[in-house]
Specification:
Length: 183
Amino acid sequence: MYDQKTFSVALAKFTEKLPSPNESQTALDDLADAVAAILGLSSAGISLAADGRLYFATAVDKKITDIELWGERYQMGPAQSAFESGAAASAGDLATFTERWPLFANSAGHIGVAAVCSIPIVLGGDSIGVLDLYSDVEREWLASDIAAATALANTATRYLINSGVRDLQAKAAVDEPVGEPAV
């Protein structure tokens, strides 16, 4: 269950920044940090879309950076599923999802990820990226948790519009190819 007080503080922080131009990367970093804290997660990561592909944008820690880069390289797993479907894709026990996402489940499990939930970041009905939630313990992804993460992602999207999300997406696409992920 999400921490309502932390959620309120994070939401206030984002909405306070909306009226002025801000740094897009800071907004993404703040979103990942806030969602991890609010939901009591081990980590969170964000990928943005450009030219139909997801590109790594940020992660709370190094091990999740590696799995996000893995997702960028191979374009498969829950993030890709959420991006393509426009709906959250989750596994409360990643070990049981070896048929749906075999390579991702193996790679993520190897670094201690036990549960994952990927939520599309939507702008005008189009998926422009994915917010990935990671837990090092099995967990049920409650509708209230997904709603809280979606609300913050939506607020951050508005913040990114103000900061020039399209410029950030273009930068992500230009920065490719990425190095070999450590996973």
